[in-house]
């Protein structure tokens, strides 16, 4: 028996960033989610998620320092 071949994953940087952004927002259609699963590389999603979390935490730290300085 041979395993069914999977289509090559061709995800762009923009598509990966958009998928991670929707995940942060928490709203996503099931069809869009399934499309992302089929097309995006999981490693790219993990890296983009880590970068997005680092940016989010950095912005929060800057916001707290700005408010505390006021």
Any descriptors?
single chain; 70 residues; mainly alpha; elongated
Description:
The protein has one domain. It is 73% helix and 0% strand. Helix 1 (13-25) crosses helix 3 (42-69). With 70 residues, the protein is mainly α.
Ranges where pLDDT stays below 50 over 5 or more residues in a row are none
Total helical segments: 3
Q: How many structural domains can be distinguished in the coordinates?
A: 1
Write down how many β-strands occur, each being a DSSP E stretch of 2 or more residues. Answer: 0
Helix content: over 70%
pLDDT averaged over residues? 86
Which percent range describes the beta-strand content? under 5%
| Order of SSEs | HHH
Alpha-beta classification = mainly alpha
- Name the overall outline: elongated
What Rg do the Cα atoms give? 17 Å
First-residue to last-residue Cα separation: 68 Å
Write the layout of secondary structure elements.
Layout: H1 13-25, H2 30-39, H3 42-69
Helix pairs in contact: 1-3
Would you kindly provide a brief summary of this structure?
This protein is mainly alpha-helical and 70 residues long. 73% of the residues lie in helices and 0% in strands.
């Amino acid at each position: 028996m041979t395993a069914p071949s999977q289509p090559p994953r061709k995800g762009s940087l923009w598509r990966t960033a958009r998928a991670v952004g929707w995940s942060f927002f928490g709203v996503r259609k099931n069809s869009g989610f399934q499309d992302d699963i089929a097309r995006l590389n999981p490693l790219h999603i993990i890296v983009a998620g880590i970068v997005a979390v680092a940016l989010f935490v950095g912005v929060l730290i800057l916001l707290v320092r700005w408010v505390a300085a006021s």
